[in-house]
């Protein structure tokens, strides 16, 4: 019996399958050891698919997924340079030969002659909000004046209750350029003529949302015939987004041609752009991390319990500031994608999109809640992080420190000229720049939820 067992054991050592199993086992243990060195939490995580769900550290984000593991020996300046060239992060979308098209119909051109002779009807508008919200309302004011066949008085910028900015239209925009570009579309005057100064303008406060051109003509024709002057406030989202082709093209003409920033703003914005450009290709990141943004959106900044309680208490004291969907909890808003990304989340997203570590980043927006500490997660991973205060020369911004619209215009110029643009949340500036970049040349836009090319609007572009 002992002899037969010994013979069986000898036969086992001689079998090829035994040696194949040993080699496979050694190879498997070796791979496991290497994987564990790259990320010690992954192999023994109790959570399925945890390689895509880790949150304790940015350094364990998407960039170390199985699709993009970086060998330790290659982490050098040479590797980072090669990574930047190969990542495709700076690659621009294919415009497919489309270009902006402002060819108005023959009917539009014929009606312009009669409309521009009108001297009896004047439209006065008061626009509110931040500069980009005001821009949207100015665009709609021009279109409404065209619909009504009225002369447009230069829009009045309402003093912003949050920033206290008392800037007038000509302080922010080039008024002469505005009038010249629209000379064949709408008659624009700086003030009411003496014949209408004694008229008490009819103030309309009850305009519904998304009204059609037919509604506007039917509702205001009689008031114009009676008084000659119509005053409109609160135009935000009042005019329908679904307009006839000629009126949609007029919107583009106003937004992307007529509304040119005033010379001092344009010159300083271009200087800041050149300083940012001198560092190489750059990403413009619009951060929405100000205190009022967290309060209005019903979201929490996630900096610490102290800051979360601060925002929660502020919202309880001023519930009217919450913009919409008041029945949703913070967690519901977060899951629905309605909350701005904080610096940690922005960093994870940039790494997932393949942004090189040495990428130049210009961040636009107001001072974040928590100050510079709120930006530390972003600054650690992407050290080439700048804003207008970092790039401006000493004293260059001081004359405009109290003018929020001026500062926002500088951000707009630098962001519009960037290689890549990404907003951390929706908003008037983010939407305006996305549209502007699409219109100006299909420039790359990374959205907070997903990467996508800047949209192409076939009706307003021709091959």
Automatic annotation (TrEMBL):
**Quick one: where is this thing mainly located?**
membrane
Q: Read off the InterPro entries from this record.
A: FucosylTrfase_pln, GDP-Fuc_O-FucTrfase
Q: Which GO cellular component terms, listed alphabetically, does the Swiss-Prot or TrEMBL entry include?
A: cytoplasm; membrane
UniProt keyword Coiled coil, yes or no: no
**Membrane topology field:** Single-pass type II membrane protein
Q: Where in the cell is it found?
A: Membrane
User: Where do the TM regions start and end?
Assistant: 16-36
- Name it: O-fucosyltransferase family protein
- Natural source organism: Actinidia rufa
Organism phylogeny: Eukaryota, Viridiplantae, Streptophyta, Embryophyta, Tracheophyta
